[in-house]
């Protein structure tokens, strides 16, 4: 027992640190999309697909890699995802070098899509870290631990969205990518040094049988252990209609969060003609507010119920989206962005408050579907908004926010329905 490495605090710190750096790809694509658009003469639809690629792998890989934690602990899945992301950013850096210094044009867009897909695997570390942290902490402390993990880790896009335009202005596109690649490598090394599996997984790795590993891990304070029926949990939750309604709610606000983190830099630059630095600053404002309010949203949901919190927060989101749709001045647009961010962040917390109440017989499986497929909105939404730009030209950057107005209305109806079922 004395050979067990780490403490719950160290487990939380390591996972949060790794997730923070793994989220770099989301922030990276947004501010550089305008550069790609100019260099390669991309259409709005092509830009929308490009900025969405990291979200595709970042959402879909969450489900299998989170499941893998139950058999091996979090370290191996986490490190593999980070290494794939490094390959993606390295590939992007090479392609950009060839474009900038060797005038390469043929096949560049396809390579950007491929390496963008790989770089997005760092986002999938979210679900791995959730499982890793959960195994470290007793149930009465998991709310604090998971709230801290998600809230702090999700600050990354906001911080990087602010820093990257400054780097682009001072150092250029290629050097900025090299720096971001360095960030990811450093983050991977730091996770390798600090990320620890919970006692049960360390004991199993030392060769202890199931029963002895559980007994010793319990004596060290571990309360949660892997389910022997992960596939059954996923199957059972998939058969519960509530699971898919919760997927839609999370698709709207967390998928929307990922989408807008990538889309807003282009919106601010192309619609209001702001510099990349100011566009990055306003994107950072949105991203940080959304992430910080996720922590507050958990507290509110504890007091008034998850469904009530969802209804109120989605209404705020709808108001903010409508403001951006109608905005004819930068002041109204910024105010609307702030309202939108508050609503989306609070709802992200409300959704996971509802999961155990509405899918009580398969919480783990439901969380996997909600977290993975909900994040898929980050891939789906940007290309749709790109279509508005293709049709309405510059005005389409504002008109595209009608997508979020519609999503808000649909989600409010779903939340009200769930409130009647959950009596929350």
Automatic annotation (TrEMBL):
<feature type="domain" description="Major facilitator superfamily (MFS) profile">
    <location>
        <begin position="11"/>
        <end position="423"/>
    </location>
</feature>
<dbReference type="InterPro" id="IPR011701">
    <property type="entry name" value="MFS"/>
</dbReference>
<comment type="similarity">
    <text>Belongs to the major facilitator superfamily. Nitrate/nitrite porter (TC 2.A.1.8) family.</text>
</comment>
<feature type="transmembrane region" description="Helical">
    <location>
        <begin position="362"/>
        <end position="385"/>
    </location>
</feature>
<dbReference type="InterPro" id="IPR020846">
    <property type="entry name" value="MFS_dom"/>
</dbReference>
<feature type="transmembrane region" description="Helical">
    <location>
        <begin position="304"/>
        <end position="326"/>
    </location>
</feature>
<dbReference type="GO" id="GO:0042128">
    <property type="term" value="P:nitrate assimilation"/>
</dbReference>
<dbReference type="Pfam" id="PF07690">
    <property type="entry name" value="MFS_1"/>
</dbReference>
<feature type="transmembrane region" description="Helical">
    <location>
        <begin position="77"/>
        <end position="100"/>
    </location>
</feature>
<feature type="transmembrane region" description="Helical">
    <location>
        <begin position="46"/>
        <end position="65"/>
    </location>
</feature>
<feature type="transmembrane region" description="Helical">
    <location>
        <begin position="112"/>
        <end position="137"/>
    </location>
</feature>
<dbReference type="GO" id="GO:0016020">
    <property type="term" value="C:membrane"/>
</dbReference>
<feature type="transmembrane region" description="Helical">
    <location>
        <begin position="12"/>
        <end position="34"/>
    </location>
</feature>
<feature type="transmembrane region" description="Helical">
    <location>
        <begin position="174"/>
        <end position="194"/>
    </location>
</feature>
<feature type="transmembrane region" description="Helical">
    <location>
        <begin position="244"/>
        <end position="264"/>
    </location>
</feature>
<keyword id="KW-0472">Membrane</keyword>
<protein>
    <submittedName>
        <fullName>MFS transporter, NNP family, nitrate/nitrite transporter</fullName>
    </submittedName>
</protein>
<feature type="transmembrane region" description="Helical">
    <location>
        <begin position="270"/>
        <end position="292"/>
    </location>
</feature>
<feature type="transmembrane region" description="Helical">
    <location>
        <begin position="397"/>
        <end position="418"/>
    </location>
</feature>
<keyword id="KW-1133">Transmembrane helix</keyword>
<feature type="transmembrane region" description="Helical">
    <location>
        <begin position="332"/>
        <end position="355"/>
    </location>
</feature>
<dbReference type="GO" id="GO:0015112">
    <property type="term" value="F:nitrate transmembrane transporter activity"/>
</dbReference>
<feature type="transmembrane region" description="Helical">
    <location>
        <begin position="144"/>
        <end position="168"/>
    </location>
</feature>
<dbReference type="InterPro" id="IPR044772">
    <property type="entry name" value="NO3_transporter"/>
</dbReference>
<dbReference type="InterPro" id="IPR036259">
    <property type="entry name" value="MFS_trans_sf"/>
</dbReference>
<keyword id="KW-0534">Nitrate assimilation</keyword>
<keyword id="KW-0812">Transmembrane</keyword>
